[in-house]
Design a protein that fits this description.
alpha/beta, 9-stranded mixed sheet
Length: about 475
């Protein structure tokens, strides 16, 4: 119970109904003077001490850089030699995007089912992986994995077997199978340049089909960070894809297409802000499909749009994208918005334009910073503000962007656009949203999902 209360306070901070008054002691927040609150230093995992296998990122460029998963693993296995790879301290590798750390990522299967788990909070996983559902076991190739008999792959298979036996309690039959080295099947490689964490890693994806031992009816974890182990049915993925971490989404889409219903979906956090009259603010990263959502809102629900990009273009005296190159516009926008008065000036311009529209359904598209959003709330008060965030997996966002802009931009340059200074707060605005719209691949189903979201949130039929 103490651990659950501690996690609740750490995650919800001032919004939690509980507070800590001393080590191991808790009370309800409303019953306590704020001065009596005890702020405990959170436990953190020790700094990793092992040396891990890495290669210079430029070697991936030579073989062919890609985003997501490719099954052409033979050509990338050529990376595994001591002329290309080396061992460095893991703590150094975690801070260095010039190198890719080599990982194993193992899918555990049983008669068409795949083993799923949830990551606990106390581990070295990146923040975006904690608490997310996952289907990949494994970890780093350590220097200790290299031996005299496995130099052909620098201990790749042996490392996978070791990681699997540490993360799960394996029956003797499976331990013996893993020791022979023949039960792990290499089925692909995974590269993810969509985040700083992803850019520092490169994974070899394995499949392990378990034995017929009855133990596998109810598998047991071997590490505390592995929780809620369960088999996913091949006939029905009851859990929405949005609850899985991104690498697991990639694997589910690639290797278990029958498990996956790749359809758009949504989650409504708060319904009341959706009732007009209101300002509906659409949020989302580049390539998310936000423009298509706003088109549906205009066409089907009679919203009138105020575009923040165009309003900002007038404030900085530049033509909007695409008349101005996106990189140039982003730099000028960042210089403006990081000034003390920038967010308020933009918010005021948006409100002024909205006030001239003469409707109770104003759609504002393209706010990129929380300060601008907060400033707009202040200026528009007491009007109702509704926020809708559009989320799309990075590889699909890349595909959507290329198709929409008819551009030949490569995935590396696309992610540079998404990570420009003026864009860096956008993904975090999901926590500000009253609803989240999850976009996938089917454009018509996506449009219908937008309609369904608004209809359900407002109890209003399609106009």
């Amino acid at each position: 119970m103490q651990a659950k209360l501690s996690v609740e306070i750490r995650k919800r901070k001032g919004a939690s109904v509980f507070v800590r008054t001393a080590p191991g002691l808790y009370q309800l927040r409303d019953s306590l003077d704020p001065k009596e609150i005890y702020h405990a230093k959170p436990f953190t995992p020790e700094k990793p001490k092992e040396r891990v296998l890495v290669f210079d990122t430029e070697h991936l460029e030579k073989l062919g850089r890609f985003q997501g998963i490719t099954r052409k693993h033979k050509q990338y296995k050529k990376l595994l030699n001591l002329e290309t790879c080396k061992y460095i301290d893991r703590w150094r590798a975690e801070e260095d995007e010039a190198h890719k750390q080599v990982l194993t990522y193992i899918l555990v299967t049983r008669r068409g089912h795949v083993l799923c788990f949830k990551r606990g909070s106390y581990n070295r996983a990146a923040e975006f992986l904690r608490g997310a559902l996952c289907i990949g076991f494994g970890g780093h190739l350590a220097e200790s994995d290299l031996g005299l008999l496995n130099r052909d792959d620098l201990g790749l298979s042996d490392s996978g077997a070791r990681e699997l036996s540490e993360e799960l309690r394996l029956p003797p039959t499976d331990l013996k199978r893993l020791q022979t080295g023949s039960s792990l099947q290499l089925i692909g490689v995974l590269n993810d340049d969509s985040s700083p964490v992803g850019r520092r890693h490169f994974a070899f994806v394995f499949q392990y089909e378990v034995s017929d031992d009855p133990y596998w009816d109810a598998p047991i974890r071997g590490e505390k960070s592995i929780t809620q182990l369960k088999w996913i049915s091949p006939n029905n993925l009851n859990t929405p894809m949005r609850h899985f971490e991104y690498w697991s989404q990639l694997c589910l889409r690639q290797y278990f297409p029958n498990l996956v219903t790749q359809q758009p979906s949504f989650h409504i956090q708060r319904r009341s802000p959706f009732r007009p009259p209101h300002f509906l603010i659409a949020l989302g990263t580049i390539g998310s499909g936000k423009s298509e959502a706003t088109r549906v809102l205009r066409e089907q629900f009679n919203y009138v749009e105020v575009n923040s990009g165009q309003a900002l273009a007038r404030l900085i005296n530049l033509p909007p994208v695409p008349l101005t190159q996106r990189e140039d516009f982003q730099q000028a926008a960042w210089r403006f918005i990081k000034s003390a008065a920038g967010p308020t000036k933009l918010a005021a311009a948006l409100y002024e334009e909205a006030a001239q529209k003469g409707t109770d359904r104003i759609l504002i598209d393209g706010i990129r910073q929380k300060k601008t959003l907060d400033a707009f709330r202040r200026i528009a008060s007491p009007a109702r503000i509704c926020t809708l965030f559009v989320h799309t997996p990075p590889d699909l966002a890349f595909s959507f962007y290329r198709a929409r802009s008819k551009s030949e931009i490569n995935v590396v340059d696309f992610f540079k656009l998404r990570e420009a200074s003026v864009e860096q707060e956008v993904a975090g605005l999901i926590v500000e949203s009253d609803a989240v719209l999850y976009n996938w691949t089917d454009r018509e189903k996506y449009r219908q999902t937008v309609i369904q979201l608004i209809s359900e949130a407002t109890n209003e039929r399609w106009l």
